[in-house]
Automatic annotation (TrEMBL):
Annotated CHK kinase-like domain residues: 142-326
Transmembrane segments: none
Protein source organism: Papilio xuthus (Asian swallowtail butterfly)
SUPFAM superfamilies per the UniProt record, alphabetical: Protein kinase-like (PK-like)
Classification via PANTHER family: PROTEIN KINASE-LIKE DOMAIN-CONTAINING (PTHR11012:SF30)
Annotated protein name in UniProt: CHK kinase-like domain-containing protein
Length: 405
């Protein structure tokens, strides 16, 4: 039974304009090309550096408005730009690689998605949704339509997500994974060359272990000694499993960072009516159930999971099953329900691993959010909101109840 939820009982992320900013020369040249393609005869550029209250770490963000005259009259083009930060202080991720992945999604893969859905005549309201991007994007800057101007926003990173948002987001994730299975069958050469070859961007090694240990010092300081002793005995296993220990032989293209503030939402009269996933920098070929668990454990508390976890799990599989039918693919061939349930049960510990090593970054207080363009990721020290410790304790309680800890 589903619990009725109160509408808009959550905070949205505020895009804070830090200052009017002089764009780098390279971006100015790119915007000139876009203005030409958009048909501007003359135009002005208004650009702003923005902050997402700690919702972004791997980019400098800009809002850019082109305003001017075309042959058809006055026109305005609104863009959102993610520009790469320096690699110097981010050792566990290759920034050029993750920007190449996002570029691959917007300039290549998203078009394949649309072609396949058009060929199968998938109804518009059941298609996978993505943001318009500009061909001028490159590995230095990703340029997209600014949907904030169309009424889209994100939920504040520390909130427990609303049920409606979770349902719409799970349906989109199921379609994203299903499209990987579809490409594997319909375009096998493309799949082998461009999808199956995508390894996780974060590689297991000394720098990654040091980062996890640094986060654990902060995440564990309110856990009981008994719980810490249990976690300490499995620490090496947890750190390795978070990246490579996923217990399944069913694999597909995964989003890799499917968390709440990487999903745009639209509110209509206080109701969530639409969601659009963004940020494909950590895409990889791996376990779909881990992608699902990442989403759930990254933005829920114990009460939410008690009320809605099973419902969302079932919705994910049912959505995939219905979506695959448009392509005449039987889900029992690609991801049978029995196998799906087994993978779900076998990988639940991922929720604890996520909350021990990654969630502290999400719950860092605004005034303490690290600037990875200036501060080494391996040396960062964070102060956490009290909600983090409540959330972690809830995950620990669940793991004990489920026999995982």
């Amino acid at each position: 039974m589903q619990i009725e939820e109160k509408l808009q009982d959550f905070d949205t992320t505020k895009l804070v304009s830090t200052h009017q900013d002089e764009l780098p020369c390279q971006l100015k040249a790119v915007l000139k090309k876009i203005a030409h393609e958009e048909g501007y005869l003359n135009y002005n550029i208004l650009s702003r550096s923005i902050s997402t209250e700690g919702g972004n770490y791997m980019a400098m963000l800009y809002e850019v408005d082109l305003k001017g005259r075309t042959n058809e009259g006055e026109k305005e083009t609104n863009m959102f730009i993610k520009r790469v930060i320096s690699q110097e202080h981010v050792k566990i991720i290759n920034l050029s690689d993750i920007y190449s992945r996002e570029l691959f999604f917007y300039n290549d893969l998203s078009k394949v998605f649309k072609e396949l859905e058009t060929e199968a005549d998938v109804p518009l309201d059941e298609r996978y949704k993505s943001v318009k991007s500009y061909n001028e994007s490159d590995t230095e800057a990703i340029i997209m339509q600014n949907l904030n101007k169309e009424g889209f926003t994100t939920i504040y990173r520390m909130n427990v997500m609303p049920l409606k948002f979770a349902e719409l987001s799970v349906q989109q994730l199921a379609r994203f994974h299903a499209l990987s299975f579809i490409i594997e069958q319909r375009r096998p050469e493309y799949f082998e060359k461009k999808i199956k070859s995508l390894k996780p961007s974060i590689q297991y090694g000394d720098d990654y272990v040091e980062f996890c240990k640094n986060m654990y010092k902060v995440s564990s300081n309110r856990l009981s000694n008994e719980i810490k002793d249990k976690i300490d005995k499995k620490a090496d296993e947890y750190m390795k499993n978070y990246l490579t220990g996923h217990k399944t032989d069913v694999k597909c293209l995964c989003h890799g960072d499917y968390r709440m503030n990487n999903i745009l939402l639209k509110l209509t009269e206080g109701e969530i009516t639409d969601v659009i996933p963004v940020d494909y920098q950590l895409m990889y070929y791996g376990s779909p159930i881990v992608d699902f668990l990442f989403f759930i454990f990254g933005a829920t508390d114990k009460e939410f999971r008690r009320n809605h976890f099973v419902h969302l799990k079932d919705m994910y599989h049912e959505t995939m099953e219905q979506y695959l039918k448009y392509f005449d693919i039987d889900i029992d061939i690609v991801y049978p329900k029995k196998k799906f349930e087994m993978d779900f049960e076998d990988n639940l510990e991922f929720g604890l691993e996520l909350n021990l090593y990654i969630a502290p970054i999400i719950f860092t207080l605004e005034d303490d959010v690290p600037d990875f363009d200036k501060v080494d990721l391996l040396e960062v020290k964070v102060k956490l909101d009290d909600r983090y410790y409540e959330r972690l304790q809830g995950v620990v309680d669940d793991m004990i109840e489920w026999g995982k800890l």
